[in-house]
Amino acid sequence: MLGNIDAVANLAVKDMTVARRFYEDTLGLAQVDSEGDEVVVYRSGNARVQVYRSSFAGTNQATAVSWQVGADIGRLVAALQAKGVRFEHYDMPGTKREGDLHLADGMKMAWFKDPDGNILHLIGG
Predict the structure, then answer these.
(1) How far is CA 103 from CA 22, 28, 99, in A?
(2) What tens digit of pLDDT does each residue of 59-95 get?
(3) 116 in Cβ contact with 58 (< 8 Å)
C-alpha cells in the first residue's frame, strides 16, 4: 500500500534558528519548504527531512535518520569533524572502532547528534 510512496524523516527540535544553522550550514541540506517558523523541510537526495519545533525535542534515544554514504564515509566524517561535529561511540557486539568509525562485517558506521540530541547515522562500506 505505501511501498511506492516516499517517506519523510521527522526531527523534533527546540530552537529553529539553531536547527537551521546545523541542518543547512553544517550538514549542507537545502530547504525546499517551510511552514512559518514551526517547520522546515529539507531535501536530502531524493528524500525529505522535516525539522519541526516540539516540546518533546531531545527525548528520542534511538537513531532518527540514517544516510547510506558508501565509500565516502571517511571523507564525510572528516568534513563534519572540521565543522565541529562530535561523533558518538557505542559498545556493540561484533564491532570494533577505528577513530570515530564503527566497523562490522565490511560496514563502516558513524553516529552523531544534532543540537537537540537527535541521533543521526552514516553508513558506508
Answers:
(1) 26, 26, 10
(2) 999 999 999 999 999 999 999 999 999 999 999 999 9
(3) yes
What the block records as the C-alpha cell of 99 is 577513530
Angle (CA) 54-60-61 rounded to 5° is 160
Burial class (CB in 10 A: 0-12, 13-18, 19+), 117: middle
* Amino acid (1-letter code) at residue 6: D
Q: Tell whether the torsion through CA atoms of 69, 71, 73 and 75 is positive or negative.
A: negative
Single out the residue of 117, 112, 100, 22 nearest to residue 60, CA to CA.
117
Q: Could you count the other beta carbons within 10 Å of the beta carbon of residue 96?
A: 9
**Whether the model pTM is above 0.90:** yes
